[in-house]
Each structure stands twice: as structure tokens, then as C-alpha cells.
Amino acid sequence: MKQGTIYTSSREETLALATRFAHALHGGEIIFLRGPIGAGKTVFVKGIAAALGLKSSPTSASFSLMKKYHNKKHRLFHIDLFRLSAGEVFNLGFEEMLEDEEAIILAEWPDPIAHMLPSDRLEMDFILRQGDEREIKLSSFGRISDILLEDLCKQAKTSL
Ligand SMILES: Nc1ncnc2c1ncn2[C@@H]1O[C@H](COP(=O)(O)OP(=O)(O)OP(=O)(O)O)[C@@H](O)[C@H]1O
Ligand SMILES: [Mg+2]
Q1: Which CATH superfamily is domain 2-82+96-159 in?
Q2: pTM for this structure?
Q3: Which among 144, 141, 139 is positioned nearest to 119, based on CA atoms?
Q4: For all residues of the chain together, what is the average pLDDT?
Q5: Site to substitute for ligand 1 among 42, 82, 128, most atoms within 8 A of C-beta
Q6: Would you state the torsion angle of the CA atoms of residues 24, 94, 112, 103, taken in this order, to the nearest 10 degrees?
Q7: DSSP letter string, 71-133
Q8: What is the CA(73)–ligand 2 centre distance, in A?
Q9: Is 79 in the pocket of ligand 1 (CB under 6 A)?
């Protein structure tokens, strides 16, 4: 396991971080996004999708817990399981995502499906600080996520 901390002081800085992060993604990465409401998890995901030039593809209207973004090069699944419990995530359409080993998975409030995913994942903990300041704690749990963490911390305002 590797750990690091990154600080951003505005929405724009979190978007810039997401842009740098996006360039380190090849497919097959799993990122858990933790932290309270309004911490910046979705801002980070949208920054990644924009940086990769991804378009949102329609998902069924009954399934707003998962958004799929894709282009020729990448597939990205953004899920948000706020207030769901593990018992409520069956038959919700996650099969496509779980079978796609080359997809990038970004999961807010991931606990209900954490046990279904490979253990190699990057965990990002968004912590609210003064005003627009955010502290983002990173922990990696395997070879793929170790590389991501190092890439992400390299150029950011960081302490490893
Ligand atoms: N440093 C920052 N990084 C990201 N967002 C920031 C920052 N400072 C202020 N913000 C603002 O905080 C809000 C973050 O909202 P966002 O939807 O990303 O939160 P979230 O963590 O996804 O919350 P939820 O758990 O409800 O999904 C936005 O309104 C954004 O403009
Ligand atoms: Mg969100």
C-alpha cells in the first residue's frame, strides 16, 4: 500500500488535478471516491471524463446510479451509491461494468459493491477544509493503483 496527500484550493484546481490524472489512465483502473456531500468527488469525475473527451451514453432511465461514458479509446463507468446498502445493489445492471476489465471505474459511496470489485484500487478521500480548500488522501492497494498514485502525486501540491 502506498499513500499520499494532495491539496486543492478551488474547483478549478480539482479539475486540473483530474486532467493530469486522466492522462495516467489506460483502462482497468478502479477508483473509490470517499468524502462528505459537496467534497468534490463528482467534480473530479467530470474533469476526468472531459479530459478524456468522453461523452455520456444513455443509460436506462430507471438506472441513475450508474453513468457510462465512452469513446473509441475508453469506457468509463461513474457510479454513485449514496444511501444504498449492499442488499439493494443486485439486479441494478452492474454486470456490464463488472465484466469489462478494460473499463475505468470511478465509484462514489462505493461500499455496497466494494466486495464485488478487484482489490487493486485507488482510494481517494476528499476532506473539507477551510472554504474551498480540499485535502485529498490517497491510498493504493495493488500494482495498477500504486502507479496511479505515484503519477498523481508527482506534479501536484503534495506530501507523500
Ligand atoms: N477545491 C474544490 N474542489 C472541488 N470542488 C470544490 C472545491 N471548492 C469548492 N468546490 C465546490 O464544491 C462542490 C462539490 O460538489 P460535488 O458534486 O463534486 O460533491 P460530491 O463530493 O460529489 O458530493 P456528493 O456526495 O453529494 O455526490 C461544487 O459546488 C464545487 O464547485
Ligand atoms: Mg457526487
Answers
A1: P-loop containing nucleotide triphosphate hydrolases (3.40.50.300)
A2: 0.93
A3: 141
A4: 91
A5: 42
A6: -10
A7: -SS-EEEEEE-TT--GGG-TTSS-HHHHH-TTSEEEEES-HHHHTTS-S--EEEEEEE-STT-
A8: 25
A9: no
